[in-house]
Specification:
globular; single chain; alpha/beta; Hydroperoxide and superoxide-radical responsive glutathione-dependent oxidoreductase; iron-sulfur; GRX_PICOT-like; Glutaredoxin; 11 helices; iron; about 250 residues; four-stranded mixed β-sheet; 11 strands
């Protein structure tokens, strides 16, 4: 079975509603510009062909922000595994091995006991759809499950800042900014037709605090181009006043 590309919100609802409750559904959120997604695309397609009993859906996070918001996608690649209207597993990151392992475990039933134990913690898909809009703005960021060393954090920050040629670290998402400064910078990027990746710092306090030291800049949003820190809202505005082609020139500089 090949990967099904979701082309609209209604299409997504139709695909997830028509599947048998006992069938496992895999969701893969990606963007065409994110380098980590290039390798994942091939792996995901191969997995779909090898596992015809699983429904593999592919979702462009840029083109379908409402679906991305529904699952609180803050960075790509992002995977969600669903069965019987229940979210069983959510995986963020460019290492496909974790997704492959989760897929195998859920298919083989080796994690049945663990799934039963976690049932009370897993929100039904329908409930998630109803609660996401209000929960996104009020729910505090999840604490890290294990302490991350400064070296590991810096390595992760470097990877995140280079995830896309233009990378925005903001409060909220482009579809639902959680502060006026982030909203303004998103508007500027869109007005200048700049394709950009984003990371919601409200979802990861380690990234939020770490970037302040990493970039030597205490506030957000923060914009990176080719892995280099460019500044916050005011500096980007100043750069555009001095050079209307600032974004194009900065992207092409390396």
């Amino acid at each position: 079975m090949s990967v099904i590309e979701v082309n609209s919100d209604d299409h997504f609802t139709e695909l997830t509603s028509d599947v048998s409750p006992e069938k496992l559904i895999a969701l893969y959120f990606y963007t065409p510009w994110a380098a980590p997604c290039i390798q994942i695309n091939t792996v995901y397609q191969q997995l779909a062909q090898q596992n015809p009993e699983v429904a593999f859906l592919s979702i462009n996070a840029d083109e379908h922000p409402d679906i991305s918001e529904l699952f609180e996608v803050s960075a790509v690649p992002y995977f969600v595994l669903i069965k019987n209207d229940t979210i069983l597993k959510e995986i963020s990151g460019a290492d496909p091995q974790e997704f492959v392992q989760a897929l195998e475990e859920l298919q083989q039933g080796t994690a049945a006991g663990q799934q039963q134990q976690q049932t009370s913690q897993q929100a039904p898909l329908a409930q998630t759809q109803a609660q996401t809009a209000s929960a996104t703005s009020s729910q505090p960021p999840a604490e890290a499950q294990e302490e991350e060393s400064p070296e590991a954090l810096n390595a992760r920050l470097k990877q995140l800042t280079e995830a896309s040629p233009v990378m925005l670290f903001m409060k909220g998402t482009p579809a639902s900014p959680q502060c006026g400064f982030s909203r303004q910078l998103v508007a500027i990027l869109r007005e200048n037709q700049v394709r950009f990746g984003f990371f919601d710092i409200l979802k990861d306090d380690s990234v939020r605090q770490g970037l302040k030291t990493f970039s030597d800049w205490p506030t957000f949003p923060q914009l990176y181009i080719n892995g280099e820190f460019q500044g916050g809202l005011d500096i980007i505005k100043e750069n555009l006043e001095e050079d209307p082609n600032f974004f194009q020139n900065a992207v092409n500089a390396n």
